[in-house]
Amino acid sequence: MATPQTGAGDPQRSLELLWREFGPQHSKPGPKPKLTVERIVEAAIAVADREGSCFGMRSVSAELGVGAMTIYRYVPGKRELIDLMVDRLSRIGSGAPDLGTLDWRDGLELVAEGTWEVYRDHPWLLEINQKRPVLGPDSLAGYDFVLAAFAAHDLPDKEINLATTAVMNIVTGTARQYLIRDSAEERPETAEEDWWRAQAPYLEHAVASGRYRHLGRFSDPEAWDLTGHDAMRYALDRFLDGLAPRMEASRRKPA
Amino acid sequence: MATPQTGAGDPQRSLELLWREFGPQHSKPGPKPKLTVERIVEAAIAVADREGSCFGMRSVSAELGVGAMTIYRYVPGKRELIDLMVDRLSRIGSGAPDLGTLDWRDGLELVAEGTWEVYRDHPWLLEINQKRPVLGPDSLAGYDFVLAAFAAHDLPDKEINLATTAVMNIVTGTARQYLIRDSAEERPETAEEDWWRAQAPYLEHAVASGRYRHLGRFSDPEAWDLTGHDAMRYALDRFLDGLAPRMEASRRKPA
DNA sequence: CTATTACTGGGTACAACGTACCCGATTGAA
DNA sequence: TTCAATCGGGTACGTTGTACCCAGTAATAG
C-alpha cells in the first residue's frame, strides 16, 4: 500500500551520496564497513524488481543478510535511497553508439526505445513520485547523451530543452499507462482477462443506454488491441514528424 | 510517505460503486445513513487537495466529522475510494462546447488544456498509481467527449485510439514532471530556489570536469526557464503538426 | 603496549497507517 | 410487538519507516 515520494526529503543528503566518489576518502577509526552504498542500491533495485515500488526497507536488509537498521548507517532514509536507485538506472546509452554519428531522428528514437526498455525491466520506476529530479552522475550523463542528437543543428537552446523534455515525457507518460499494470503481479494475463470481464457488463449497459454516442460508433474490436509499445511509437513518430521541419530548417551549414 | 495503488484491489467493488445510481434502490431495515458516497468522495477530494496524495482515511473521516471507521460502511477500502475520486474528476468538458462543432485540432487542444487544468488543481492525481483504469460514468463521458473531435474524419478506429491515447499521455507525462513538485508544499517558490542552490555546486563541478561535453555547450541561461505549460504545449503542438497530414487526408467528403 | 575514541551492526520501540472486528442503538418488515 | 438487518463508534492488530541505545571493533595518541 505504500509508494514513496522522493526528491522532497533532503536533497543535500542525496546529492552528497550521488557524487560521493568525487569526495575525499580519508581513513577513519572503527571497524571496516561490511557494506557499501553500491551494494545497497543494487540490492534495493533487485528487491523492487521483485516486490514492486512498495518494497520495504526490511526487505532490502534481508536481501543483504543484515539487521533491519544496518543500512541506515549508509543511507539516511528511504527517500534518499530511491534517489540513488533512480540515478543508477539512468545509465542509458552506455553501450550505444555516440548519437553524434546518427541522424537526429534515429538518435531520438534510440533514446526513446532505450528508456522504454528500462521502464519495461523496472516498472516500479514509474510509480515513484519524484518531486524534483535529483541529478546524479548517471542521469546527467543520460541527458548529455541525448543532447548529442542536436549537435549538427542550430536549434535554440530553449527549443532543444523543450524537444528532449517532450520525448522523455511521451515515453514516460505512455509507459505509466501500460507498464504499471504488469508490475509485481502474479499472473498478468489472467488479471487482464478478469479486468475486462468485470468491466464488460457495465460498459455494454452504458453504451446501450445511448448516453455515449461516439463510443457506440467504435465498431472495430481490434481498435483496443494495441500494445504499450505501439502507443509509445505512435505518439513519438507523430511528434518527430512535427519536429522534422524545424530540424531541417536549422541544419547547420558546413563552413 | 504513503501513496496508494489503485485498480488492483477489487475492481468489481469499485465498479458497483461507480455505477451505483444505475442499480436498484429498495428500502432496507436499519437506521438512515448519515452519509452518502458522494459526500465522502467530495470530502476526500478536498482533503487530498489540502494534504496531497498521502492523505489518510482518518483525515477524510475527520473532514466529515464522523468516526474513523464510519466511512468503511460506504466504501470497501482506500483503493476503491480513490477509484471513485479519479472518476469524479474526469468530468471534463461538461461546460465546453460540443467538439463536433470545432475543428479537430481546436478540439484536441481544448481537451488537452482542460485535462491540464484538472491536474493543476488536483496535482495529487498525478501521484496515483493506477494499475488499470477503472472506467466509471464520468471517465467514459470524457472519452466519448474526445471522440467527437474525430467525427468528421474517416481515420481508422485503431488510429483514433492511438491518437487520443497519445494526447492524454503527453499531457499526463508533462504534468507529472512539472506539477507534482508543487503538490502539498508550504512554500513552492523557496523550495525551488533551495533545490537549485543545492544542485548548483555539483553541476558546476561536473560540467567543469569536461565529462559532459554537450551540457557544457548549453550557454543560454534562459533555456531552463520554461513553465510546465510551455513544455506541454510544445509537445502537443509538434504532435498535432505530425498528426495534421493524416487528419487532412482522412477528412470525410460531403455526400 | 595501553588507553582513547570514533564508528560499526543489531535490537528494541514508537508513531502513523489501513482496516478487521465487536458493540449498542436504530428502524423497516413480518 | 418482535425480529433482523444495518447504522455509527471504538478498540486493536499488523505493517510501515526510523529514532535511539548498546556492545563490540579498530585506528590513533600516549
UniProtKB/TrEMBL annotation, chains A, B:
It comes from the Bacteria. SUPFAM superfamilies: Homeodomain-like, Tetracyclin repressor-like, C-terminal domain. Pfam families: TetR_C_1. GO terms for biological process: negative regulation of DNA-templated transcription. Keywords: DNA-binding, Transcription, Transcription regulation. The keyword DNA-binding applies. GO terms for molecular function: DNA-binding transcription factor activity; transcription cis-regulatory region binding. Residues 97-244 form the Tetracycline repressor TetR C-terminal domain. InterPro entries: Homeodomain-like_sf (IPR009057), HTH-type_TetR-like_transc_reg (IPR050109), Repressor_TetR_C (IPR004111), Tet_transcr_reg_TetR-rel_C_sf (IPR036271). PANTHER family: HTH-TYPE TRANSCRIPTIONAL REGULATOR RUTR, TRANSCRIPTIONAL REGULATORY PROTEIN. This is AcrR family transcriptional regulator. It comes from Glycomyces lechevalierae.
